[in-house]
């Protein structure tokens, strides 16, 4: 069984109450009686003192004062004169000779007692007090005050009594029954047992709820702390008091807020770091891919150049035609390498952003026409049907050199991929405030999943075919880099019986 604070509090407090009640019972039974006796003795001595004070002057007044004292204190007062004849006694007994001080009629109580049991005879009653005087004769003569605990055999009752000789020689006997004391103690103990039980029950209920109220905030704090351990900071402690628990709640709240902020920051930083790492990894991968692609692209021309150069060296004596062929291959391969290096430089320059587009306004159709003019011999040689569909007078704001580079790239690709129909169409039109240049060639469509890939460096759909025309796979990535720098769109569409590459330019204001 887990001993919670609540249970500890409850059992501790109820135990304390029980201990308190038991201890009170014990102390009462052991000492209350003695204490009461000593208190009674003190009271007798006090009354004796009082009587000493009032015992002068008018007998009538003394009698009244004595009676008053007797009624207030409940102490039985009897006075004998020096001849041991009764002088004062509150309860008048008919046969008794009239007392010197006696004036007050007998109390009604006497009537009640008259019937049952019968009133004690005066001789016997006086006998008890007389006996006290005789018993203590020697001490009384010395003027001492004697206190006795003695039994009145007549009524079988114990009395505590004080006997002394007053200044004028009268004897004073004060007595109070002892039975009432022990009974009082018993009653008090019984009552205290009852009140103790009641206190115990009420106390237990109060403590139960008090413990609950005290431990509730602790349980709540515990729950919040548990949640915090699981990185849930949504719950906050409702501070309702300024005591230690309230202060602890405030501390936990601020701890939660600060932890939450710190952990959020950390998570954010971590996510950023992960993104950075991912980007680095991708860049690294790209770099490795790039290097392997470049070395792969260079390997073929280099080995060709090597082979043909060696061949040339070994066959120097052979015919001129053979030599020329060897030289042509070497020059051709060197050109390819030159082209590759040039394109790589271009691409790295554009991608690094080290150069700016040199924008100017010019008529786009003129530029296209100029390029087409340059390609005329090739069109003728390859018997290609190249046409221009233009929207005349469209002035664009663009980098003339880079725009030509794009057109040349598209046109080269079109020439390299055109099919037997040999149709190439270049069109210029304005689309949504942009000048759109498209280059269409009849031929096989590009499979849709590769439409994005062809814009990556060194990506070639058909490697054998690309090799045949000496492509490096960099042309379209240069187009992409230029267009991204110019913040203009570009793309490719599979058309009926052919492929159309397009790009857009800003129309001059
Ligand atoms: N008009 C086209 N029709 C079909 N496929 C094309 C066309 N243009 C490009 N491609 C495909 O896209 C690939 C990438 O073209 P890109 O221009 O980037 O490289 P390349 O033409 O092979 O080499 P480079 O342009 O550097 O000489 C090509 O290898 C080819 O497979
Ligand atoms: Mg190309």
From TrEMBL:
Q: Which GO terms describe its cellular component?
A: plasma membrane
GO MF annotation list: phosphoprotein phosphatase activity; phosphorelay sensor kinase activity
Q: Which residues form a coiled coil?
A: 252-283
Annotated region Disordered: where? 107-126
Question: Domain HAMP spans what residues?
Answer: 212-264
Q: Which parts of the chain span the membrane according to its record?
A: 191-211
Protein name (Swiss-Prot/TrEMBL) = histidine kinase
**Keywords for the protein's UniProt record, in alphabetical order:** Coiled coil, Kinase, Membrane, Phosphoprotein, Transferase, Transmembrane, Transmembrane helix, Two-component regulatory system
Gene Ontology biological process: cellular response to phosphate starvation
EC number(s) stated in the UniProt entry for this protein: 2.7.13.3
Task: Give the catalytic activity.
Answer: ATP + protein L-histidine = ADP + protein N-phospho-L-histidine
| Top enzyme category | transferase
Q: Where in the cell is it found?
A: Membrane
What SMART domains does the annotation carry?
HAMP (SM00304), HATPase_c (SM00387), HisKA (SM00388)
**SUPFAM superfamilies referenced in this protein's UniProt entry, alphabetically:** ATPase domain of HSP90 chaperone/DNA topoisomerase II/histidine kinase (SSF55874), HAMP domain-like (SSF158472), Homodimeric domain of signal transducing histidine kinase (SSF47384)
Q: Which domain of life is it from?
A: Bacteria
Q: Which residues form the Histidine kinase domain?
A: 293-509
């Amino acid at each position: 069984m887990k001993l919670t604070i609540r249970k500890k509090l409850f059992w501790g407090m109820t135990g304390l109450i029980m201990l308190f009640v038991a201890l009170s019972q014990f102390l009462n039974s052991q000492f209350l009686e003695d204490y009461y006796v000593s208190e009674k003795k003190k009271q007798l001595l006090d009354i004796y003192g009082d009587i000493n004070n009032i015992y002068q002057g008018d007998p009538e007044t003394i009698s009244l004062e004595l009676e008053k004292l007797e009624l207030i204190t409940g102490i039985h007062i009897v006075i004998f004169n020096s001849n041991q004849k009764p002088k004062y006694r509150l309860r008048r007994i008919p046969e008794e000779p009239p007392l010197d001080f006696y004036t007050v009629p007998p109390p009604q109580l006497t009537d009640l007692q008259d019937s049952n049991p019968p009133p004690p005879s005066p001789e016997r009653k006086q006998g008890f007090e007389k006996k006290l005087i005789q018993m203590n004769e020697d001490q009384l003569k010395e003027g001492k005050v004697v206190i006795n605990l003695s039994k009145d055999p007549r009524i079988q009752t114990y009395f505590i009594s004080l006997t002394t000789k007053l200044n004028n020689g009268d004897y004073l006997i004060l007595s109070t029954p002892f039975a009432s004391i022990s009974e009082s103690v018993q009653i008090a103990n019984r009552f205290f047992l009852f009140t103790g039980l009641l206190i115990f029950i009420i106390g237990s209920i109060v403590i139960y709820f008090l413990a609950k109220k005290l431990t509730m905030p602790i349980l709540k704090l515990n729950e919040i702390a548990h949640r915090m351990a699981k990185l849930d900071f949504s719950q906050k402690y409702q501070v309702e008091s300024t005591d230690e628990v309230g202060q602890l709640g405030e501390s936990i709240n601020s701890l939660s807020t600060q932890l939450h902020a710190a952990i959020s920051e950390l998570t954010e930083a971590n996510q950023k770091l992960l993104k950075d790492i991912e980007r680095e990894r991708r860049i690294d991968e790209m770099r490795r891919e790039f290097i392997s692609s470049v070395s792969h692209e260079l390997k073929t021309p280099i080995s060709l150049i090597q082979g043909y150069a060696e061949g040339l060296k070994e066959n120097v004596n052979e015919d001129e035609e053979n030599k020329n062929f060897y030289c042509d291959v070497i020059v051709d391969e060197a050109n390819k390498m030159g082209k590759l290096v040039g394109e790589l430089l271009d691409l790295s320059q554009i991608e690094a952003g080290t150069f700016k587009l040199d924008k100017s306004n010019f008529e786009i159709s003129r530029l296209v026409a100029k390029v087409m003019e340059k390609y005329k011999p090739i069109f003728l040689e390859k018997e290609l049907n190249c046409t221009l569909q233009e929207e005349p007078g469209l002035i664009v704001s663009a980098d003339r050199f880079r725009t030509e580079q794009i057109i040349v790239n598209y046109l080269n690709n079109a020439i390299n991929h055109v099919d037997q129909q040999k149709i190439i169409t270049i069109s210029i039109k304005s689309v949504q405030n942009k000048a759109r240049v498209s280059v269409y060639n009849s031929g096989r469509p590009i499979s849709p999943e590769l439409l994005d890939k062809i814009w990556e460096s060194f990506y070639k759909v058909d490697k054998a075919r690309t090799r045949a025309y000496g492509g490096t796979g960099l042309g379209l990535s240069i187009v992409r880099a230029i267009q991204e720098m110019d913040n203009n769109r570009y793309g490719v569409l599979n058309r009926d019986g052919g492929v159309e590459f397009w790009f857009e330019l800003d129309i001059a204001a």
